[in-house]
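Dear Dr. K.,

Following up on our conversation at the group meeting, I've run the structure prediction for Bifunctional protein FolD from Streptomyces graminofaciens. I'm pasting the input sequence below exactly as I used it, so you can double-check it against your construct before we proceed with anything downstream. Let me know if the numbering doesn't match what you have in your notebook.
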Amino acid sequence: MPQSASTTTPTTSPARLMDGTALARRIVETTAERAAAFTARTGTSPCLATVLVGEDPASVTYVRMKQNRCRKAGIVSRHVALPAETTTAELVHTLTALSTDPAVHGILLQHPMGEHIDERAAFEAIAPEKDVDGVTLSSYAAMSFGLPGFQSCTPGGIMRLLDAYDVDPAGSRAVVVGRSAILGKPVGMLLLARDATVTYCHSRTKDLGAVVREADIVVAAVGRPELIRGEDIKPGAVVIDAGYNPGNVGDVHFASAVERAGLITPVPGGVGPMTIATLMEQTVTGAERQLGL
Ligand SMILES: Nc1nc2c(c(=O)[nH]1)N[C@@H](CN(C=O)c1ccc(C(=O)N[C@@H](CCC(=O)O)C(=O)O)cc1)CN2
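The predicted structure tokens came back this morning:
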């Protein structure tokens, strides 16, 4: 029976790890079966277009990881590499072309894209039915109302992890540290849609530690290495570390947090693999929907 995060018993033993690698592997296996069935029925494979502006080394790595996972899942990947000086208009043109190409079922625009680009204009050039990374306003509306639609991949992956570990957000106090468009904001919306009481913290939040100490579920999504420390974790809380920092360091100081949390995601091996598994799954869902299957 799902456990409400607000009723998990405070613990004095180290937290249980939430194994994102294992869950992601199972999701990709199931996705590969669905992709094979799609190919058998339609004579064409699900296709994900990845778009990268510039050559930021971390982004290059993430896109490569997505392409590798596509191969495992039986998804064709088509990559569009654009120079760093690409304008918003040029990027919008590329995304519009992919949006109208019937051979492409999903579009991933790697983030960040460079300060000169109007990020919202770029994301909105992705057709909602191909928005398998959950970044358009249409997808945000679906997430905030708890309606079917594509979820932002890291937030969607986090919700899957909570479900897999029988954590029911309903009635719990969830604190999201960070308010980015692809992570903090949407994960808060998904938690709210599942009846958590959600607080967002950000750079202007006063006494961050005091707010975090109230949380039954903490989602750290701010991109500040080891910002959240064990002393700020309520005993028995569920701690989700969604921080991507150089050197595979999360936003949570793992060694101290693991001593207080009830459940905790490691970095690496927690939220990261779930991000890509969610992308694979949603790409096949997009392909199925577009062909009316
Ligand atoms: N358009 C998007 N841009 C970005 C997203 C996103 O979901 N959509 N998320 C992040 C980065 N990211 C994917 O793009 C990502 C980061 C990390 C991982 C991951 O699996 N990390 C591994 C460790 C990897 C390693 O060993 O080098 C882990 O945590 O276990 C996946 C995806 C920003 N941009």
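Two things stood out to me. The radius of gyration is 19 Å. The pocket of LMY7XDAE is lined by residues 62, 65, 108-111, 133, 153-154, 182, 244, 248, 267-269, 272-273, 275-276 (CB under 6 Å).

Best regards,
J.T.
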